[in-house]
Amino acid sequence: MPVTNRIVHSAGVTKKLRQALVLLHLMTAFGWLAATLAVLLLTAHGQVEAALLVDDRLLADCSFMTVYTGLMLAANWGFTRFWWITVKLVTAIGLALGGRALFHDGMFVAGGVLMVAAIAALAWIGRTKPWGQLRPDVRVTPWRHPAIYLAILVTPVLDYVTGLPLQAIPAAAVLVSRTGRWPGRGVLSRPGGRR
């Protein structure tokens, strides 16, 4: 019973931290789109060096942060439970990892248009959530512990400040949320109050 009470009392904190994660995801997604548009406009006007600077300083960080926050948000829905999540993850990871390949000699404008269209499509998919369930048999228990959201939100800041890739923290958060165990605290509450 104490574990359930702690979770109920922290529900407001968890909701606010989840909203902060959604806000971070939206901000970085819009940053990714804006940086891509800037690269597209700069390359269309022959400013390739400036476009590469925007790409290195802003576009890459925004794209990876969008994918990171998207992965963390998708963990609550189940990565392969809904078509829209699977399509968004595959497309976003492909764009983040292969985006630079779209901007090569002679293809800057075409690559920029393709990337802007793909990011806009990802936004539409995230808003409308089309296509239904891919695997209705998969059940996912949402995260309820505020520390998981806090670790997810702090990781990118630490990553940026230290310059070190700190994927271990969100990976541990996903593992904890999927197993329902919190080190030293027993089993977290399940839907319906079961332990």
Automatic annotation (TrEMBL):
Keywords: Membrane, Transmembrane, Transmembrane helix. The chain crosses the membrane at residues 21-46, 58-75, 82-102, 108-126, 147-169. The keyword Membrane applies. This is DUF2269 family protein. It comes from Kibdelosporangium aridum.
